[in-house]
Amino acid sequence: MSMTHKMKFLKFRFAFHLSRVFCSMLLFLTINSWAQSSFPSKTIRIIVPNAPGGAADISARAVAQKLSERIGQAVVIDNKPSAGGIVAAELVSHAEPDGHTLLLISSGTAVSAALFKSLPFDTVKDFQPISKMATFDLVIASAPNGRFKNYSDLLTYAKANPGALNIGTPQIGTTQNLAAEYFMASTGIKAQIVPFNGTPPVINALRGGEIDIMIDILGPLMTQITSKSIKALAVLSEKRSPLLPEIAACNEAEGLSGFHVSSWNGLAAPAKTPKDVINRLNRELQAILSSSEIKKKLEDISMIAQSSSPEQAAELLSSDIRKWSDIIAKAKIEKQ
């Protein structure tokens, strides 16, 4: 075979192999694109780390119903309550990363990451946040006939009487309990935090005069506040709550401009879920959470509908973990 024929033969083989590689890549991209464009191809499960009937569960069900209507597939809620939401999060961390198994995350997810010595998953690396869903304010409340007329009275008394103020919260390690620690650190006051087994016992203790104030999520207290059986002194959010516009925000007080705490929830998927799937779910959530119907449903349980980009949701989770880790360390709360 002449040199010219050899060169032609080699060029032919190279072109043949190159075409095979190109066809293989094209086939892969086509299959991958088809798989993503066919999402969702089956029922979507939202794993909720709370018991049925609570605000978290109600908000997830409201969004799930609308999501199902928009995507044409069933979206079901699977409640997996456990301490720190660990059972639910572990289940989703091991799920197929295809967008059909999602996790309801919240500020409690960040608290667990900060509070527990070890978890069977990495809260940041094993999940891909999709969007924030809602925020819900925390409130400082007193008995209606208590010594405090307003938030300024509370601060004045607490600073003049170090250690005399009793603050009731749910259990140690909850967002509400840590918010009380954060409140003390930010205001410079000294007080006694009295933890109770849930919100109802805190309310009873407040009415019975066993504690001076309580810090809890607004939702469970809204009925008592509107009926004037307890008195809201301030909300811990960055600005006044649209649900209680007449009540001051804590950071309105002199020297507290940087202090604010609010709870939130959102949805996350397992890490490595395709970006197209994350973006599709984010677009659907943006549309759902901007609807007047969902805004009203969430407002009825004292939540404010609020979506975000996946990047914003991821940063919120990470920043909350850093914040609560710092508060736990400064308060010398033993990790569990």
Concise overview:
By secondary structure, this protein is of the alpha/beta class.
Describe this structure in words.
With 336 residues, this protein is an alpha/beta fold. It folds into two domains: 44-135 and 263-330, 3-Layer(aba) Sandwich (D-Maltodextrin-Binding Protein, domain 2), CATH 3.40.190.150; 137-252, Periplasmic binding protein-like II (D-Maltodextrin-Binding Protein, domain 2, 3-Layer(aba) Sandwich), CATH 3.40.190.10. It has helices spanning 3-37, 55-71, 86-93, 107-115, 151-160, 175-187, 199-207, 218-226, 275-289, 292-299, 310-330, and strands at residues 44-48, 75-79, 101-106, 127-142, 165-169, 191-195, 213-217, 231-235, 262-270, 304-305. The termini are far apart.
User: Gyration radius, to the nearest Å?
Assistant: 26 Å
CATH homologous superfamily grouping of the largest domain = Bordetella uptake gene, domain 1
Number of helices: 11
The helix content is 40-55%
Q: What is the global morphology?
A: globular
How many strand elements?
10
- Name given to the CATH architecture of the largest domain: 3-Layer(aba) Sandwich
Main sheet characteristics: 10 strands, mixed
Number of domains: 2
What separation lies between the terminal Cα atoms? Answer: 78 Å
H-E string: HEHEHEHEHEHEHEHEEHHEH
Structural class label? alpha/beta
Overall pLDDT:
89
Q: What is the highest CATH level, the class of the largest domain?
A: Alpha Beta
How much β-strand is present in the residues? Answer: 15-25%
Which stretches of 5+ consecutive residues score pLDDT under 50?
Answer: 26-36
CATH topology of the largest domain: D-Maltodextrin-Binding Protein, domain 2
